[in-house]
Amino acid sequence: MAALFFWLWNTVGNQSTLIAEKPWGVPFTLTSQDGQPITEKAFRNGKPTALFFGFTNCPEICPTTVYELTGWMKEVDPDKSKMQAYFISIDPRRDTPEVLNKYLSNATDRITGISGDPAKVEAMARGFKVSFQKVPTDAKNPDGPEYTMNHSASVFLLDGEGRFIGTIDYKESPDVAVQKLKNLIARSS
């Protein structure tokens, strides 16, 4: 029994270590808000990354997160040299790169929007373990153009090599969120 326990502990322990040592997510090629191709390599360039998955028609969570994340980043990285952030649209049918550019450029210069082909965006988001679902708002026309999106509301934190470090939850205390970003920057320095 002791040998089995040791084997399981050693096997599970080593697997956890291997998972933590690998970049998080899946390979992808999408489009940034400025129309340029962007891949998972953007999250593995030595700078820590904050990722948020949302959509521009979001009534509360997304604009609040963009506003709060921008403020936290200004506090922990005033000169914009230590970290980066991305807003990945889970509604690419409506959120073209041009729409994302207008949405984000009106609010921040610290967060880059990512969109692209809907199937590729979905594969990328699913590969990053993001939960989202289209929800019709017109019961008489469930396949119509009127809908909202349910989605994960956390900001995902990646180190400079793209490894998952943790999250900032929606409605997290600002002091805790700032400390998490400070820790993320320190870890990647």
Task: Provide a descriptive summary of the structure in words.
With 189 residues, this protein is an alpha+beta fold. It contains five helices and nine strands; from the N terminus they run αβββαβαβαββββα. α2 links the parallel β3 and β4.
Structure summary, number of beta strands = 9
Number of helices: 5
Please indicate the percent range of residues in DSSP E strands (runs of 2 or more): 15-25%
C-alpha Rg (nearest Å): 18 Å
Distance, first to last CA: 44 Å
Query: What's the helical proportion of residues?
Result: 25-40%
Q: Could you describe the largest sheet, including whether it forms a barrel?
A: 7 strands, mixed
- The structure class reads alpha+beta
H-E order: HEEEHEHEHEEEEH
Low-confidence stretches are 1-19
Overall, the morphology is: globular
Strands in their spatial order, largest beta sheet: 2-1-5-4-3-8-9
Q: Helix and strand layout, with pairings?
A:
Blueprint: H1 2-21, E1 29-32, E2 37-39, E3 49-54, H2 61-76, E4 84-89, H3 97-105, E5 111-115, H4 118-127, E6 132-136, E7 147-151, E8 155-158, E9 164-168, H5 174-188
Parallel strand pairs: 3-4, 4-5
Antiparallel strand pairs: 1-2, 1-5, 3-8, 6-7, 8-9
Which descriptors apply to this entry?
two-stranded antiparallel sheet, disordered N terminus, globular, alpha+beta, 189 residues, 9 strands
Task: Give a quick summary of the entry.
With 189 residues, this protein is an alpha+beta fold.
